[in-house]
UniProtKB/TrEMBL annotation:
This is DUF455 family protein. It comes from the Bacteria. InterPro entries: DUF455 (IPR007402), Ferritin-like_SF (IPR009078), UCP012318 (IPR011197). PANTHER family: 3-OXOACYL-[ACYL-CARRIER-PROTEIN] SYNTHASE-LIKE PROTEIN (PTHR42782:SF2), SI:CH73-314G15.3 (PTHR42782). Pfam families: DUF455.
Length: 290
């Protein structure tokens, strides 16, 4: 199979099982091809995009298993969109360096594992994927993706960057409520997200102009109303960005960044858990059988 055929398969196939098809270890040789920009992925009826706004359960309500299932449903939706959009990038940027394309393939494979982990665990809580409406916040950013650098700025440094914070927050809160299995899943995913952001940094940093620093270059690649607030979570863990290869100036600028949306989240409900700044880390979790 050619890599482009695989990417088309992930994007066009409506079945979830097809989107979970892991990548090959070997690809057929492929000649140059024109950029292909698919506007919307194929999806079965129960996985269609919805404009209905469904709020993620508040952290203090995660003592209830039903709310844990709904929370994981939100996260699973993000994983599915990420699988599709990294496949989209393979088709949209045919001239991307081989190392970048290989990184996208590896990211797809890891996102597929994350999606299966979330689905299996949410099923334990009585929630099936597609039970609640699926937003398409990642897909709404297509007009941002003018280049592989802007794609990396939005998908890797922003959305996946924010998940460095969210995965830590939820790992700590699930652990607080005694749900160590779900906490371990979040830590496992955190470890992979560090690699995902690092891959994005490699694609991003090669294009920094001599007269700009990394933060200025990042700002030049994103367009309002998308802002750096999308690049961090309820709580900010600077150390995670350093682990992902971002320089100290970028890490600090993101930490102090505020806009009109800052503070919309009820931080008191976050702070009540006393989460602290120490990262939850594990190399690999043998208990997470698929």
């Amino acid at each position: 199979m050619k890599l482009t055929d695989y990417a088309k398969h992930l994007l066009i196939s409506p079945n979830l099982e097809d989107k979970l098809l892991p990548p090959s270890r070997f690809w057929d040789e492929e000649v140059d091809f024109n950029a292909i920009r698919i506007e919307k992925p194929g999806r079965n009826q129960n996985l269609q995009f919805s404009d209905k706004k469904i709020k993620i359960p508040r952290l203090e309500h995660l003592n209830l298993e039903s709310n844990r299932g709904l929370t994981l449903h939100h996260f699973a939706n993000h994983e599915l969109m990420a699988i599709e959009l990294f496949a989209w990038a393979i088709l949209a940027f045919p001239n991307a360096p081989k190392s970048i394309r290989n990184g996208w393939v590896k990211t797809i494979e890891e996102e597929q594992i994350h999606l299966k982990l979330y689905i299996k665990r949410m099923n334990d809580f009585g929630v099936q994927f597609g039970d609640i409406p699926l937003n398409y916040i990642f897909w709404k950013q297509l007009n941002q993706f003018h280049s592989l650098e802007s794609f990396s700025a939005v998908m890797s440094l922003s959305f996946e960057g924010a998940n460095l914070d969210y995965s830590q927050v939820y790992a700590k809160v699930f652990s607080y409520f005694g749900d160590n299995l779900t906490s371990d899943i979040m830590v496992y995913i955190f470890e992979d997200e560090v690699k995902h952001v690092k891959r994005g940094v490699r694609a991003f940093e090669k294009s920094i102009p001599p007269n700009q620093n990394s933060w200025e270059h990042y700002l030049s690649l994103i367009q309002f109303p998308f802002t750096p607030r999308r690049a961090k979570g309820y709580l900010y863990f600077p150390e995670t960005r350093t682990l992902a290869g971002l320089d100290s100036r970028f890490v600090k600028e993101l930490e102090v960044y505020e806009d009109e949306y800052t503070g919309r989240v009820n931080l008191e409900s976050v702070k009540k858990f006393g989460l602290g700044s120490e990262l939850m880390r594990k190399n690999r979790l043998d208990s997470l059988s698929l």
